[in-house]
Target: HPt domain-containing protein
Amino acid sequence: MSTVQNPKMYDLTQLQALSRGDDSFVTKMIDSFLTNLNEGMEEINEAKSYNDWSTIAKVAHRLKPSFQILGVSSLSDVILHLEKDYLLDDFDEKGYIEIINTFLTSSSILKDQIQQFLHN
Model:
């Protein structure tokens, strides 16, 4: 039985340059990212159940810089939509929920990939 591999969703180039070769710094930043991501995913999931779009936008805004440092460019548009779309005059609630679900699913894959990197 073969398993499907998802393409790598992160690029540590920027973080490694920032660390100047300090692997413990890289590990500490990744651990912090994972903690923040777990908390953010829980907050977004809970806020979604209450249609609390402003909380989702705030969490997305808070997560955005760490996604950039870890080179998670594949989710940059998703995060931007989470952050801004609920303010639009023609806000599409159904479409917004789809974006939330995409974020949560993709973030779970990202989390697994990064945890696998840490254990190698």
Remarks:
- The chain has a mean pLDDT of 94.
